[in-house]
Amino acid sequence: MKAPDTKIAVTLFNLRDHCQTAEDLDTTFGKLKDIGYQAVQISCIGPIEHTEVKRLLDKHQMYCCATHESLPNLRNNFDDIVAKMKLWECDFTALGYPGDDCWSLDGMIDLAKELDEIGAKFKAEGLKLGFHNHHYEFVKYTDKTFLEELHNRAPNLYSELDVYHTAGGGGNPSKWIYDLAGKIPVIHFKDFAIINREPISCEIGEGNLDWPSIIKACEDTNIRWYSIEQDDPLPHREIFDSVELSFNNLKAMGVE
Questions:
Q1: pTM of the complete model
Q2: pLDDT beyond 90 at 251
């Protein structure tokens, strides 16, 4: 299907407990459509056949703007990932977490080399591979952060910058957006709140991030998709209410 004009999407990681069967995914797509969403990032759904996911995307006229993959899946099931992405008319996937073996200088160098090679294979298929950061990647094994080194060493790797985790690692989300200009097809939006003296992700506009500067940086660098993510439901709000609040707040900020 043709990509909708909106920039707003939502990752199904938020709603993973509601996407483990085809029936649940059908219901979830319907609820998202009622809120106003027209695009999703497919992540953490249950073992549902690719063709069935495609049928449900078409049924709800929901565009798949991105997916997530694990490193073992990228290593061992490349052809299946490519076939799935092309079936879903999606041109971007991201590594959600690099695993536990890369947290050293040598580990980071090896990871960058491997992701660059996998990224080149995706490019040959007309697709893009990105890297979704957490706060861990702001560790320094050289005079640069892990995330800087990773992107400097892997020119075939794109970014799926997460603004919440970037702030949590001590980075400035807007600066990172400019630094990675042209390399971020999809960005993860979630806000940064303090609840019970602990940092926690929350709905867009309900926390402490500087959204005017973040949105301006996204507009200036032509980021195509703003994918709303919230790691877990908040104690006082159901997750579907949270993704609706984030959607409405983004719209109120002028994001179409």
A1: 0.96
A2: yes
